[in-house]
Specification:
homodimer, Pnp Oxidase, Chain A, 5 helices, globular
């Protein structure tokens, strides 16, 4: 897909920071922990942080069946799903050139309720394994009442724009002579040591999914 | 403000996780690095990660004058500004009870362009100092052309709901006997060591704002 094929709402203003190819988009979607999902309700914009997962060009989100976005969002509703990570604070010699290093993706698509049992289980597996790869096989199977209590929305990626900033500050030429510190303060996100809930059956080891999750941050 | 005063879109479904008081709301807004700002454009929801800052019950966002949200959002447009931090991955003995520990605030308000020079400078100071407290006094003053190139939107907090989850997994009673690991994997966000841009004038020290920024993460 080239930029000219994209509707205006899906384009990034600063071309040098934008990518629209699937590998760039998928890498950022796969690195995020939560998505900020936007939808329109009663004429108002709503932005809700939600767990999510990706399988190919399909994104899944879930919630209690009674949650607004599950209960009130109807078939074909437009959704905007945004994932972003802050990688650094960029300090320049002027306030104007201060910035943030980041990776972000803005996806547009339409909501579809996933109701068939196989699709529903698959979506929940994708969402669970987004946070803890391999976890699905480690836990006990889903119960029928749990399936009923959990609503799943799928959205195919109609358009997606990745935008990133890397590197140091770019100051006005004259400002480099000023005795003002400038550079990048890295923002680091990492997983700490797992803390069990004090009721783990004795001798149960930390599972492989925890290690797999940790590798996402390396 | 009590829950019953709030319009439906501003209420949190799970009462036990919700707070609506200013101290709880402000603490989360002040701890975030970026906000996800939602608005409606051509009938579609848009969610854009943006730098922001808070002063009392006023929130400021900014962007290049040519940026969509600055250029196309008109006076009184409804905005939704959401700030969230992930504090941990909660692993349970069933997929159903997996969760995330987090802090989040969803704010609803209306966009107002800040055009008077003093208000404009004040907003930019608030946004700059949100990331680097005290930075405004360390850098060279804004230039007229920079003010012109930067658009500022203000939104008063009309309604705000804070929602947090803390603690370990809550499993079904029968599941505690299963030999499955369960607990919390902390997600840690921190600032790394500042990296200067190699053009800092010799002898220029790291400024106080960097230390102040670090204290936000302690």
């Amino acid at each position: 897909m080239t930029t000219t094929d994209l509707p205006p709402y899906a384009r990034v203003r600063q071309a040098k920071r934008a990518r629209y190819d699937a590998p760039a988009v998928h890498a950022i979607l796969d690195a995020g922990l939560v998505a900020h999902v936007g939808f329109i309700m009663d004429g108002r914009p709503m932005v809700i942080p939600m767990a999510y997962g990706r399988d190919g060009d399909m994104l899944y989100i879930h919630g209690a069946s009674t949650t607004r976005i599950i209960r009130d969002v109807t078939e074909g509703f437009p959704l905007c799903l945004t994932v972003s990570m802050v990688d650094g604070i960029v300090a320049a010699r002027s306030a104007f050139h201060h910035s943030v290093n980041y990776r972000s993706v803005v996806v547009h698509g339409q909501a579809h309720h996933v109701t068939d049992p196989d699709g529903h289980d698959h979506a929940l597996k994708v969402i669970t394994e987004h946070l803890l790869p391999g976890r699905w096989a480690e836990v006990r199977p889903m119960l029928a009442k749990e399936r009923k209590a959990t609503g799943v929305l799928a959205m195919r990626i109609d358009t997606a724009a990745a935008k990133t900033r890397t590197g140091g500050p770019v100051d006005d030429a004259a400002d480099y002579d000023l005795p003002i510190w400038a550079g990048v303060i890295p923002v680091v996100t990492a997983l700490g040591r797992p803390v069990d809930d004090n009721r783990v059956v004795e001798g149960t080891p930390c599972p492989a999914s925890l290690d797999a999750a940790r590798h996402r941050f390396l």
